[in-house]
């Protein structure tokens, strides 16, 4: 259980980060349940509060709830209690088994869910599991959508996430008001599971790009180039990518990224390895060749066994540097 919770149309107003919804606006909006208050879930829930939504929250780690409770959220003991009190629920959890437990477990959402409830899962999981949860929810009279996100902790804090949404299109319209409070881009992908498919494709490319950036920067440094100068050249040339210009893996090149903080925070190596495993499984099931995706999966799995599991995935640069020293 220790890792279980780790993740009518109206206008959403953007508020200053220190200002929260007034009592009047809070009262005019129905409560939103939020389950999973980890690195991503907590800032997402905060942005709902900032936009005037009463939030009913739970997390397996009580300390994760305190800050949100101080901002006015109601904290309850289990996903089932959240389902009793809210008819729109968002989950942000680490993996497929966590999602299955939170939705269908003995204290899960579906034990107490009300008919007509909208269930939105923003975890990154196997598309097949998303479809299974949709079927289980439908049996209880509820509606399930998968809506994984891209952008990381920084984008979650600034309400600039990208949501990739799978589900019934008419329900997408109803959920969009919540997504726009937490993100800058909301993309409807198709039926349940297609949001997860889009996310897995994105993260596979992200991992490949990060490894390529780390290799390139390491080679340039060994050839005598200053890393900041090399990054500047890459970012005005055809090799430019998100990993080079926004999330550079080399310490000292950029401020405000995990590489500037001993690779703490951000998107963990364990989570990247998990997502690549999901991509590998779906590629196998669809008989799709992914030679670079498979190699990236292997690299991140090795990193997890070499002490990098809890570091940001950009620590692949440090991993390569240590490999060359052996």
TrEMBL record:
- Keyword Isomerase in the entry? The reply is no
Q: Which GO terms describe its cellular component?
A: mitochondrion
InterPro entries hit by this protein: 3-OH-isobutyrate_DH-rel_CS, 6-PGluconate_DH-like_C_sf, 6PGD_dom2, 6PGDH_NADP-bd, HIBADH, HIBADH-like_NADP-bd, HIBADH-related, NAD(P)-bd_dom_sf
EC primary class: oxidoreductase
Query: What biological process terms from GO does the record include?
Result: L-valine catabolic process
Question: What does the record give under GO molecular function?
Answer: 3-hydroxyisobutyrate dehydrogenase activity; NAD binding; NADP binding
List keywords of the entry alphabetically: Branched-chain amino acid catabolism, Mitochondrion, NAD, Oxidoreductase, Transit peptide
Q: Per the record's keyword annotation, is Amino-acid biosynthesis included, yes or no?
A: no
Q: Where is the active site?
A: 199
Q: Which reaction does it catalyse?
A: 3-hydroxy-2-methylpropanoate + NAD(+) = 2-methyl-3-oxopropanoate + NADH + H(+)
Enzyme Commission number(s) from the entry: 1.1.1.31
Localization in the cell: Mitochondrion
**Pathway field:** Amino-acid degradation; L-valine degradation
Q: What is this protein called?
A: 3-hydroxyisobutyrate dehydrogenase
The organism named in the record is Poecilia mexicana
